[in-house]
Each structure stands twice: as C-alpha cells, then as structure tokens.
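Q: Convert this sequence to structure tokens.
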Amino acid sequence: MILRHDRADAECLADDAEWPAVVTFFGGDGGATLIADRWLLTAAHTAANLPPDHPVPIGGEEIRVARVVAGPADLALVELVKPAGVPVIALHTARDEVGQVALLLGRGDFGNGVDGVLGTDHRLRAVTNRIDAADEDWLRMRFDRPPDATALEGVGGEGDSGGPALLRGALAGVSSWQDHDGPLGTYDCVEHYARVSTHADWIAAVVCAPSTPPRA
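A:
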C-alpha cells in the first residue's frame, strides 16, 4: 500500500493475526477476502492467474483452490476445497458508500504519494481513503494531498489487486485499477475498487449454489 508522504511507513503496518480473512495468492501479490467458509472474493484479473489446485495460505494451512467463478466489474469468487476455519468478513450491502472513509489492506508494493513505489516486502499494510464517487461497478477514491487527506491516506500498489476496502469492518470493494497520468501510487491518482453492494445478489447466488465436490 502507498501512504501519504508525511507519515512514517510503520504507521500503516498491520498485524496479520488481526486479519486472518485477508489472504494473498502469490506470497504477497494478489489479495482476496474470505467471505464464506469456502469462498474468497477477489479481482477477476487476479483470479485469472491462478493455476489449477493452487494452494492458498489461510488459517495456518494451505488450502487448494477448487474453482474460480468470474463475475461482473472485475469481481471473481474463488472456491476452496474445504472450509478455511477462520472468521469471515461480511459484505457491505448498503449503497451508502460515497463520503465514507474506507480501510484498505494489502501486501503489495509500499511507498508514498510523492515518490510512488519504494519497494516490496509483502508485509500487511492498512491505509485509509474517502470514497468520492460510485456507480454500478466502481467505487472511486482520489489520492489526496495533505491537508485534504485522511490521517493515513493511501492507495494500493502493484500486488494489491484483489484486496479489500472495508467500511465498518464489512467488505465494500475489491482493489482493481488506478487512473492516473503519472507513476503508480502518486498523488491525484484515482483508485477504482469493484463495488460489492451492487453485485451482492450475484455473490450470494454463487456462494449459495451447490458446491463443487473437492478433488482428491
């Protein structure tokens, strides 16, 4: 995650033990959120890179992927071969996101709004950003400069795709892409998260359908 330039990177480091449902597919690259005992919600472009039977570290073990179901707005659901055994994160289904401050989590590149990306260590980081606009598919957040920024203003970096935007602890969006003329993760970029509330019916329909039998 990329943080505002006048805050120390240590301020946004998060404790993995507090977020067992926020996982990574590729050792730090490509995030996802456990929303049901066997289901992860991520970005479709991230899930497209998953090989068959890919192991996902979650709940102190590696659980293989059973299947991927691509959906609207760069969303995808990833079914696991067995329950993960950790608390899930609920979906934010109210369409009241605009104006609220979201918590963004990820293990991708870190840096700041002036310099952009500075490195990668795959540690979990948490930043905040205000949701400025929304439409059927997207939540949009501009990376504002101080003093117009939140206390830990930030956006995603390379490797954070698929990670969550949380409102009051519930999953409101999935990290997808940035719109900016300059380098990734610098001020004034607009972060796009695939919107969960408008696609909650699709998510529920997939998760509640009969499960795929686990592979041996």
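The mean pLDDT is 95.
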